[in-house]
């Protein structure tokens, strides 16, 4: 038996456009983001989706709503959970990235943004995000796939990078430069054997 997993990063948000650290701040889509979500829905139209998961943040939920409308799949179950939220940027949330670099220095901001295990002040590292997202995927989402259901996850750049790292068995060094484009579906076809091999081990 094989199940399909669709991953979509939300469309462009207002703070994406303004080059701000967004994290857990609840910022909605721009017109461009809405168009990106519509395009993702058109791309997924015709695919069979049994259940969808998203975060508790409006930009992901809005993207999912647009996708399901485009797919004519508005009646499928939707589960929202903070485990799929974007990485928290803590004290940096709301700050312009260029202004933050001028304040703290380019090198420090690059470390906060791109290192695997260094968290910004009051926020999460990518490692922290991984250790939040993957247990939820393994214990809550994967069982649906093992029943043969096809799953759609609409989430965020770093929560999805964590999931891609897990599914593709990437190292911390390999995931650092991995980008997840807004509104572009990623598709994984997983067999029973592959799913049985997906075991969560905390990264320490």
TrEMBL record:
Ion transport found in the keyword field: no
Catalytic activity entry: (2R)-2-phosphoglycerate = (2R)-3-phosphoglycerate
MF (Gene Ontology): phosphoglycerate mutase activity
Pathway named in the protein's UniProt entry: Carbohydrate degradation; glycolysis; pyruvate from D-glyceraldehyde 3-phosphate: step 3/5
Active site: 10, 86
Enzyme Commission code: 5.4.2.11
Residue positions binding substrate: 9-16, 22-23, 59, 86-89, 97, 113-114, 157-158
Keywords: Gluconeogenesis, Glycolysis, Isomerase
PROSITE patterns, alphabetized: PG_MUTASE (PS00175)
Site (Transition state stabilizer): residue numbering on this chain: 156
Keyword Isomerase carried by entry: yes
GO biological process: gluconeogenesis; glycolytic process
HAMAP family to which the protein is assigned, alphabetical: PGAM_GpmA
Job of this protein: Catalyzes the interconversion of 2-phosphoglycerate and 3-phosphoglycerate.
Family to which the UniProt record says this protein belongs: Belongs to the phosphoglycerate mutase family. BPG-dependent PGAM subfamily.
Name assigned to this protein: 2,3-bisphosphoglycerate-dependent phosphoglycerate mutase
Organism of this sequence: Chitinophaga terrae (ex Kim and Jung 2007)
């Amino acid at each position: 038996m094989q199940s399909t997993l669709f991953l979509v990063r939300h469309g462009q948000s207002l703070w994406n456009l303004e080059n701000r650290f967004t994290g857990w701040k609840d910022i909605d889509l721009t017109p461009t983001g809405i168009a990106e979500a519509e395009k993702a829905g058109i791309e997924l139209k015709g695919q069979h989706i049994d259940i969808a998961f998203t975060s508790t943040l409006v930009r992901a939920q809005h993207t999912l709503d647009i996708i399901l409308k485009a797919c004519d799949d508005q009646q499928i179950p939707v589960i929202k959970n903070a485990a799929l939220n974007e990485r928290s940027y803590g004290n940096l949330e709301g700050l312009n990235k260029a202004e933050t670099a001028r304040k703290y220095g380019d090198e420090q901001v690059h470390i906060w943004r791109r290192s695997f295990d260094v968290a910004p002040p009051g926020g999460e590292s990518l490692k922290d995000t991984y250790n939040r997202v993957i247990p939820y995927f393994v214990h809550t989402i994967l069982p649906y796939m093992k029943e043969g259901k096809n799953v759609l996850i609409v989430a965020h750049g770093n929560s999805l990078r964590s999931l891609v790292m897990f599914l593709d068995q990437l190292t911390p060094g390999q995931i650092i430069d991995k980008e997840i484009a807004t509104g572009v579906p990623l598709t994984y076809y997983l067999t029973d054997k592959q799913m049985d091999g997906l075991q969560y081990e905390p990264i320490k």
